[in-house]
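Subject: for your reference before the review

Hello V.,

The reviewers asked for a structural picture of the protein, and I figured it would be easier to keep everything in one thread rather than splitting it across files. Below is the amino acid sequence we used in the manuscript, unchanged from the supplementary table.
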Amino acid sequence: MTITYRSLALATALASGFASVAAAEDVTIRYLASQGGLSAHELARELGYFDGTGIELDNLGYASGGPETLMGLAGGSLDLASAATSAVLNSIAGGNDFVIAYATNGINEDVQSIFYVLEDSPIQSIEDIAGKTIAVNTLGAHLDYTVREALHQKGLAKDAANLVVVPGPQLEQVLRAEQVDIAGFGYWQTTFEGAARETGGIRPIFGDTDVLGAHPEQAQIFVEQSARALDWARENPEETRAIFARALEARGENPEVAQYFRGFGVREGGLPVIRDIQFWIDVFEREGQIPEGKLVAENLLLVTGDDVPATN
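And here is what came back from the structure prediction:
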């Protein structure tokens, strides 16, 4: 899942010099939060990393999924969007002048998207999901394309399964009520997945790692301090869960789910590397969604660990 700015103009306006942590002028960044989740920039705010920088975060509510935030970004109601790499690339390919700032979540051995069924379900493998109903938090993003790719790898049509949209907090409910055959919990929804797994009576069928592989002044401050928060979270898991619980409670959510938070899926030493950019480009080209070569390096400002691009 990547954090994306609206335009090169915005990113450039925020990028005149990165040497000092103090910002030249105040900037308010409007965004939508994710239920049951805490983004790195939100953690950075809770840790006080933006204090004195001139950066303020303005949470305008909740997003049902990444594509919704991208629509807000394109329409100008948001300054920041958070969406799966596939959804971001799809939007850029569609003509939106977006700039990728940093990867807010990643996938590793502990943090991944997992598709669950009830314990007594006859579904045993990816081959069995054809014709079944799968609950995902949104269409056109990570879970959607993970299912498409899983079906493709098994020689099945990409629409062989029926995907329905269910908000993250209701995924477990609709699965246990047998309203769907499978529930897909995204890697950014480890709290919901952890709570469901703790209750028992469900089992995983496959995860995205099985399918995909495990794979500028204020703007730079924003990225650096968010990355700093990710590093802090990795080194202080219990304190992170406590902050997570307080943040959820302040938003009117259930703070108890914070105990199931397992991390942001980042590598040691800073930002997670966006490993799946080329993978998604290949998928889009194969399905005819973008012409070959349309997504070139100039379209993307990728802040990916050691591969930080020049900014002045």
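For the response letter, the relevant points are probably these. Residues 5-24, 269-276, 294-312 have pLDDT under 50 and may be disordered. The two ends are 26 Å apart (CA to CA).

Happy to draft the paragraph if you're swamped.

O.
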